[in-house]
Amino acid sequence: MKLHPVDLGIILFYLILTVFIGFWISKKASKNLNSYFLGGNQIPWYYLGLSNASGMFDISGTMWTVSILFVYGLKSAWIPWLWPVWNQVFVMVFLAIWLRRSNVMTGAQWITHRFGEEMGARLSHIIVTIFAVISVFGFIAYFFVGIGKFATVFFPWDLSFTLGGLTISSEQSYAGIIIAITTLYAIKGGMYSVVLTEILQFIIMTISCVVIGYIAFTTVTADQITAAVPPGWKDLFFGWELGLDWTGYLDSVNQKIESDGFELIGYLVMLMIFKGIFASLAGPVPSYDMQRVLSTRTPAEAAKMSGLTILVLYFPRYLMIAGFAVLALAYLIPEFEAMGSEIDFESVLPLAIERFVPLGFKGLLLAGLLAAFMGTFAAFINAAPAYIVNDLYKKYINPQGSDKTYIKYSYLSSFLLVFIGVLGGFFAASINSLTLWITSALYGGYAAANVLKWIWWRFNGYGYFFGMLGGLIASTIVPGLFPDIAAIYLFPLILLISFAGCLAGTYFHRPDNMDILKNFYRQTKPWGFWKPVIEAIKQEDPDFVPNLNFKADLVNVIVGIVWQMTLVIMPIYLLIGETTSLIVSFLVFAITSWLLKKYWYDNLDNTANA
């Protein structure tokens, strides 16, 4: 596609601006590790909330979500529960408070806060650092595939070449260039530049979302959507089977549904809920979301930041997603039919942009989508080096090093992480395959140990180490043993192996030192099975009040999940012309908003300071 010079100018201006911000703010970011990785805990929560939302507005995820909405219709609103997307609600309601009370810099450093400094704790500290690095490799490969597919549709130059017998495609060349620019500003400016550029990116993306939604709303009618999709496509709810048959509409979609393994959607959603509860209770994985929580000023602000992320992210994002999906359904079906069985459903988004976005506006939109990619990618490469430098180099190799030395090694580790992750991107089959592996296999190995660390006093450092080790090994090996089974269906087996490791490690060694456990519980105050620790604390402080908020937190989480779901489905109903469903969804949104305001937000300061 040939871009107008104005469009190219806008994109170029945006790229130069982001690099300039990174260099401009680098002096402030480089004072010490806390400034570099957490912004000195001085960045206001609402800025961090907008930054976090921008970080979750990634281009690979947007391409994937457009493709599943195209294929599965309203039922696609359930499929992101694979992550699960509602882990943000758990973070908002109580986990952000627990995590921020720790006053640490990384998830690995939190391990010392929980388990102490003995051998089991040291092993746990190392294994969670390894997990953080592996997950970053997976996400960099995921971003590499997504941005490459996206860029080749819009930029006119053929950048393929051969190097030493290895053929580099245009997709890979474009991905490498954009990743290099993003890495440059993120490394130079640290958390300050990441947050500042992500706020700019969020503004651009929100404008883009509204414009795309407007184009779809004024261009596509409800009758066009009804004619383009099979019966059941507009139904949010389902039975045991998906019940979508695209025969006579776009036959190749049936092959996509079969290859995804989502036909038994009732069983799938039950698995996603089962997985989601464990994954959400485990807390944020050691990445940019956790970094935002740890960067806030207070525990209450950490919870507010997480709530703002949900509120500002989902409606505009799904306005764009639904806009592109309905435009493709209304006008691109003949093009997809011509592709036959070779159709690439992840190309729905870039094809819709090419066809329907007017000249002159393409530049802003493409800058916005590049911003979405760059924001997420930058957030990851800001978070990951903290684990290498703070949790390995500083802790075990050079504890007396200068801040200048630590910042220098942060730069170096960032480049190394990006280089290895990009290599992985060369061998990734698709965005969908990476999504399923990360969400279902890798996170399956994370869940067991990280749930028990919060809720069970007897769980010790050896239990954490062997649980994480078993989970990492299982998430790597098990999918290869069952190549024809979607990764989500293997989650219970991976979880079981990880739990077995947790229990074996826990009872292999005595409980952790009671003083460590008392200090952890006093400061963090989770609910769960902490009776012996609470009794020991009360012997020293009879007035001590433990966490009694389990039932209130449970209710707020359920209400929050419904609230979040309305933010997903309202823009879809708006753009497919389902007025009655839109009104019902809005009423549910209003009721759940009131309930959260009354029973969560109004009590937040008391809960966070209890």
From TrEMBL:
InterPro entries assigned to the protein according to its UniProt record, in alphabetical order: Na/Glc_symporter_sf, Na/solute_symporter, Sodium:Solute_Symporter
Name of this chain's protein: Sodium:solute symporter family protein
Catalyses which reaction(s): L-proline(in) + Na(+)(in) = L-proline(out) + Na(+)(out)
Membrane topology type: Multi-pass membrane protein
Subcellular location: Cell membrane
Top-level division of the source organism's lineage: Bacteria
Predominant localisation class: membrane
Family, as annotated: Belongs to the sodium:solute symporter (SSF) (TC 2.A.21) family.
Chain segments annotated as transmembrane: 6-25, 45-72, 78-99, 120-145, 165-187, 199-217, 264-285, 306-333, 364-388, 409-428, 434-455, 462-482, 488-508, 554-574, 580-596
Pfam families: SSF
Keywords (A to Z) from UniProt: Cell membrane, Ion transport, Membrane, Sodium, Sodium transport, Symport, Transmembrane, Transmembrane helix, Transport
Parts forming coiled coils: none
Gene3D superfamilies the record matches: Sodium/glucose cotransporter (1.20.1730.10)
